Amino acid sequence: MRALLLAAGEGTRLRPLTLSRPKPMVPIEGKPILEHLVALVRNHGITEVGINLHYRPEAITEYFGDGRAFGVDITYARESQLMGSAGAARNFPQSYFEDTFVVLYGDVLNDLDLTELVRLHRAHGGVATLALYEADDPSRVGIVDVAEDGRVLGFVEKPAPGDEPGNLANAGIYVLEPSVLEYVPEGQSCDFGRDVFPALLAAGLPMYAYRLPGYVQDIGSPERYAEAQEDARSGRFRSPLLAGAAAC
């Protein structure tokens, strides 16, 4: 199994921290977010990692190299223009994601039990499994409508208060079958949440949801970055890179 870590984003709202590095290289307790994610997938037995590059790519390649020092084998794919989360996967060699693979957004700090997520994905037999978190304000995010058996029924973007089908939002963590990439046009920008997942539902293909029991934080603003730093210090966020942290 391989993992795709999405690391092309610039992170303009985090400037000046991102003037010389992409957002996934911003540090959490002295280690880049991306290094925490590499350690996470490695701890769950995934040692082949694909990383997409665009903004300040040298900050990533010079830090990680081929990945051996971090216990993984890294393959990079550069994007001359941003290709979106799904377009990034399509930008790798066609044979790279030839088996079930995991996708993690490089700016979403988490301590998910990937082993359990993959187990549930295989038990359900769907083409995609999405990790979801409980949104405090469903009207400000995209909400996933989920049946009692966990099957994804639909997506509602920023529903009006009172019209929400629930409060479960996309965490940016997926387990996917390679057939999903057939719904990604080659050479075009394409997003899993906006484009691919609705197309899979329209085609009648089974997708399932996993309610995230652990920590998740989108490092999208200075306020959330400060929260993540405090969560790492307090132990609310667990990482194998942090002294005294429980293994993920």
Please report the total strand number as a whole number: 13
What CATH architecture label applies? Alpha-Beta Complex
Please tell me the overall pLDDT: 91
Identify the CATH homologous superfamily: Spore Coat Polysaccharide Biosynthesis Protein SpsA, Chain A
Poorly predicted residue ranges: none
**How would you spell out the order of helices and strands?**
EEEHEHEHEEHEEEEHEEH
* The level-1 CATH class: Alpha Beta
Shape: globular
Q: What gyration radius follows from the Cα positions, in whole Å? A: 17 Å
| Oligomeric state of the chains in view | single chain
User: Main sheet: which strands, in order across?
Assistant: 5-4-1-6-11-8-12
**Helix proportion range:** 10-25%
| Beta-strand residue percentage | 25-35%
| Termini separation | 18 Å
Outline the secondary-structure elements.
Layout lengths: L1 E5 L20 E2 L2 E2 H11 L4 E6 L3 H8 L8 E6 L5 H7 L10 E5 L2 E3 L3 H11 L3 E7 L7 E5 L5 E6 L10 E9 L15 H11 L4 E5 L4 E3 L3 H13 L14
Parallel strand pairs: 1-4, 1-6, 4-5, 8-12
Antiparallel strand pairs: 2-3, 6-11, 7-13, 8-11, 9-10
Structure overview:
- It is a single chain.
- This protein is of the alpha/beta class.
- It has a single domain, classed as Spore Coat Polysaccharide Biosynthesis Protein SpsA, Chain A (Alpha-Beta Complex), CATH 3.90.550.10.
- Helices cover 25% and strands 26% of the residues.
- It has helices at residues 33-43, 57-64, 84-90, 114-124, 192-202, 222-234, and strands at residues 2-6, 27-28, 31-32, 48-53, 73-78, 101-105, 108-110, 128-134, 142-146, 152-157, 168-176, 207-211, 216-218.
- It has a seven-stranded mixed sheet with strand order 5-4-1-6-11-8-12, sandwiched between helices.
- A hairpin with a 5-residue loop joins strand 9 and strand 10.
- The longest helix is centred in the C-terminal third of the chain and has 13 residues, at 222-234.
- The chain is globular, with a radius of gyration of 17 Å.
